[in-house]
Design brief:
two-stranded antiparallel ribbon, elongated, mainly alpha, single chain, 370 residues
């Protein structure tokens, strides 16, 4: 009897030890939450039957959609927002997929660019890392600030509108920019930032604001022009950077082939020196610009009919400010024009985009295509 009781006791100890080890094992395996482990296992089993739904995107439109996860958003809240944005068809399935793949605690606050061709698994993984989200943005040489605003409106990734951007770069922007920048380039207080939004291709952070974009473009202008030695060239000629940019903006619109930019700048410089009007067609186009047609084709009547301080067929000297965004080639040409005696130029009749240059008005007329 005593031996029997000893065996029973040993068996109980073994059972207790097994139970303890089992609990410890489950605790380790389930990360301290066996109930959640069981629930997750059930969810994994359930979604195995939803493979077709997981592999099916909601649409075929690959247009990027800006999607923001705020700090504190729950997986359920994220799923409902994805559903409202028409990026997924089933919010419950999305939550289940996150849970089944241990992604529910990996969702990261930030801005993402998603599209309707992406499946739930693709979107779920994408939402765990916002570092790859960037806004590609290109500004072309020869654009005016309204065309930059149009490009913003045509890019669905921005969190603001072109009008928002114009509010910080339009007329009077000289009063709100960094005073050091305004002083460095000689920007009049009431002027816009026309001409100073440096043209390039940019990768922008998704949280960028109108002011951040403005300042980034102005910094690029300072960096690029300094690296090219343009301020020193301007100073040597007794010009402010504002004057250089104004002249360069006209050259940019005139020079189809930028190798001609220094020669065209030289012609305008000669005319300024002699007190002649610039007679530059782009300065007539500038005040005529309107949404949808910022660079109108001008008529003979426009040369005198357009009443504007920008119209250099009526006004002597440079216009009140830049008319477009010049690139480095045009800026360099304006600061260091080709020395010549030419006072006139006009496009070749072949349509090549190159120009014929003339010393006298008679030669200029002889170069006419009519």
């Amino acid at each position: 009897m005593r031996r029997f009781l000893q065996l029973i006791a040993l068996l109980l100890v073994a059972l207790i030890l097994f139970a303890v080890l089992t609990v410890i094992g489950l605790t380790i395996i389930t990360d301290g939450n066996p109930i959640s482990f069981v629930q997750t296992a059930i969810i994994r089993w359930q979604i195995t039957a939803r493979g077709d739904d997981l592999d099916q995107s909601i649409g075929t439109d690959a247009t990027p959609i800006r999607f923001v996860i705020a700090s504190g958003d729950t997986p359920r809240g994220v799923a409902l927002n994805l559903f409202e944005a028409n990026l997924i068809a089933d919010a419950d399935l999305f939550v289940d997929y996150l849970r089944a793949n241990n992604l529910d605690r990996e969702i990261e606050a930030g801005t993402y660019f998603l599209n309707q061709t992406q499946t739930i698994p693709v979107i779920a993984v994408a939402l765990t890392d916002s570092r790859g989200s960037q806004i590609p943005f290109r500004i072309l040489e020869g654009w005016r600030i309204e065309e930059v605003a149009n490009a913003i409106d045509n890019n669905p990734l921005f969190g603001f509108t072109g009008a928002d951007f114009l509010a910080v770069v339009g007329a009077g922007a000289g009063l709100s920019v960094d005073p050091a920048f305004a002083a460095q380039v000689g920007l009049p207080p009431n002027n816009s930032l026309e001409g100073f939004l440096f043209p390039d291709t940019y990768s922008l952070p998704p949280e960028i604001t109108p002011i951040m974009l403005r300042d980034l473009l102005l910094t690029a202008f300072i960096t690029q022009t300094n690296d090219a030695g343009i301020p020193a060239l301007a100073e040597a000629r007794g010009m402010t950077m504002f004057e250089v940019v104004t002249l360069a903006s006209i050259v940019q619109r005139e020079a189809v082939h930028l190798e001609e930019a220094p020669m065209i700048a030289g012609v305008y410089t000669n005319r300024i020196t002699r007190g002649m009007r610039l007679d530059a067609d782009p300065t007539v186009q500038y005040p005529l610009g309107e949404p949808g047609n910022w660079w109108k084709r001008i008529t003979q009547a426009d040369y005198q009919g357009v009443i504007s301080p920008y119209n250099t067929y009526r006004m002597i000297g440079l216009p009140p400010g830049p008319i477009a965004i010049p690139g480095l080639a045009a800026l360099s040409a304006a600061a260091n024009p080709t020395a010549s005696e030419f006072l006139y130029f006009q496009a070749e009749c072949s349509g090549s985009g190159f120009h014929r240059f003339a010393l006298t008005y008679e030669e200029h007329l002889a170069n006419s295509c009519f």
